[in-house]
Design goal:
- By secondary structure, the chain is of the alpha/beta class.
- It is built from 15 helices and 13 strands.
- The strands form three sheets. The protein has a five-stranded parallel sheet, sandwiched between helices. The protein has a four-stranded parallel sheet with strand order 2-1-3-4, with helices on both faces.
Length: 354
């Protein structure tokens, strides 16, 4: 890890405070965080891995979650009330989660109920607000992740006639196609259009209703970039995240969650070549960890998650320093009535995934 003098001083201060606080804090960091934050973390993983770690693997009363807001919310929902979840920078949101507000989802649900006379099961990607998770919980739906989206979607279709899948249209579309559902059986709901821009006739003919949402990190990749790379490196393997567009996923050799990408690349043979379509920091760390393999980011290069980048050493140090003084800042607490319904949706996911 290469850091400058200022960052080095901050790491030293963070280390000193941690020794003073001993086992009262646990620092969690998402895979997309910058290297200096990962260096300070007790555990690195995807959003659900980190939430479950906070719930089961640590007894620290304070969890400093270096991720984004919806991740901290999920951690608060699944951990005991004795745990306090702290987000170092409270401004670290998620543009994808923000694309489906509870008001928009409620309006969509009302329209669907008025126009579709078959059972609809709502599914929300974990990259969503706690209120949206709660909506799915109280309406017989579930949460899903990029790892278990297919299992959850199969469960939903076995328990209903149609699925409202939000907020990431690309994860939904790519998962449906992988299951053998034709593109014609999916339709895109536009939350800013009257009735979602869908006629009742089309609604009643289709199986999967996709929310018009997307991840700004993963939708920048283009199929043309894959063509260019394959001309330059004929033996290269392309692996992408399912939040990428359908055209990119269709051209890639592999598609899967962050954990899947890490597993496939780590188990690949020496000398193999990989182009990875996901957030830059994860790709960079894989490149550093496996120098015996050729690993690059699918263009555009250095494609960072701006929301994750709002967490830095200054904010982490500030959070810990206040804790040392007996003060809590940037605490993320989900109201009990929302947490109860959201936990219902999460528990359904856990039951489905096994």
């Amino acid at each position: 890890m290469v850091i400058n003098k200022e960052e080095e001083r901050l790491v030293e201060r963070i280390t000193r405070i941690r020794s003073e606080l001993e086992d009262s804090i646990t620092i969690l960091a998402h895979h997309y965080q910058r290297d200096s934050i990962v260096h300070c973390a007790d555990m690195v993983g995807d959003s659900l891995e980190l939430a479950r770690y906070a719930a089961r693997e640590t007894t620290s009363p304070y969890i400093v979650f270096c991720g984004v807001y919806f991740m901290a919310e999920t951690a608060d929902i699944v951990t005991p009330e004795t745990r306090t979840i702290i987000l170092p920078n409270i401004e670290a949101g998620c543009s994808l989660a923000d694309m489906a507000t509870i008001e928009q989802v409620e309006a969509c649900w009302k329209m669907l109920k008025n126009n579709v006379h078959k059972k609809i099961v709502p599914i929300t990607y974990i990259n969503s607000a706690a209120e949206v998770k709660a909506f799915c919980g109280r309406n017989g739906g579930s949460v899903c992740t990029s790892s278990n989206a297919e299992k959850v979607l199969r469960w939903a279709l076995s328990n209903g006639d149609k699925v409202l899948f939000l907020p990431d249209q690309h994860l939904a579309r790519n998962t449906a196609v992988r299951m053998g559902i034709p593109l014609e059986q999916t339709v895109l709901y536009y939350p800013f259009c009257p009735d979602g821009g869908i006629s009742p006739e089309i609604l009643n003919k289709t199986k999967i209703i996709l929310w018009d949402g997307n991840c700004c990190v993963h939708t920048v990749f283009r199929p043309e970039s894959i063509d260019v790379l394959r001309k330059q490196y004929p033996d290269i393997s392309v692996i992408v995240h399912p939040e990428c567009t359908y055209d990119v996923v269709k051209k890639a050799d592999y598609c899967g969650s962050t954990s899947y990408i890490i597993k496939v690349v780590s188990e690949a043979s020496k000398g193999s070549r990989w182009a990875i379509g996901t957030e830059y920091h994860l790709v960079h760390r894989l490149e550093q960890k496996y120098p015996d393999k050729f690993i690059i980011s699918l263009p555009p290069q250095e494609n960072r998650c701006a929301s994750m980048y709002l967490i830095d050493l200054h904010h982490l140090y500030q959070s810990l320093n206040y804790l040392r003084m007996g003060k809590i800042i940037n605490c993320v607490r989900v109201p009990d009535e929302i947490a109860k319904d959201a936990r219902m949706a999460l528990d359904r996911m856990f039951a489905i995934s096994g």
